């Protein structure tokens, strides 16, 4: 998540410099990783349960 926050910050900060560059040009300037990995934490409160259901783990997505 920190990576995407940084990317968005750079794009928003530098956008006046591009002067209305098309989206495809901006996307080509950004890093295009082959693998996206991360960690997640999730909780969900369900009716009938006193404690929320909690799950966490790692994920990865391979782009071909």
Show the helix and strand layout.
Elements: H1 2-18, H2 23-29, E1 35-44, E2 53-62
Antiparallel strand pairs: 1-2
Number of helices: 2
Return the domain count: 1
Q: Largest sheet, if any?
A: 2 strands, antiparallel
Side-by-side strand order of the widest sheet: 1-2
Strand composition percent: 25-35%
- Helix share of residues? 25-40%
Run of helices and strands: HHEE
Give the overall shape.
elongated
Low-pLDDT runs of 5+ residues are none
Average per-residue pLDDT, rounded, comes to: 79
Number of strands: 2
Gyration radius, in Å: 18 Å
Kindly report how far apart the N and C termini lie.
22 Å
Structural class by SSE content: alpha+beta
Keywords:
64 residues, two-stranded antiparallel sheet, elongated
General description of the model:
- 38% of the residues lie in helices and 31% in strands.
- The protein has a two-stranded antiparallel sheet with strand order 1-2.
- It has one domain.
- By secondary structure, it is an alpha+beta fold.
- The chain is built from two helices and two strands.
- Strand 1 (35-44) and strand 2 form a beta hairpin.
């Amino acid at each position: 998540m920190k990576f995407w926050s940084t990317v968005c910050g750079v794009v928003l900060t530098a956008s006046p410099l591009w002067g209305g560059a098309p989206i495809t040009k901006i996307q080509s300037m950004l890093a295009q990783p082959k693998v996206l990995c991360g960690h997640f934490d999730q909780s969900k409160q369900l009716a009938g349960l006193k404690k929320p259901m909690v799950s966490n783990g790692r994920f990865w997505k391979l782009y071909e």
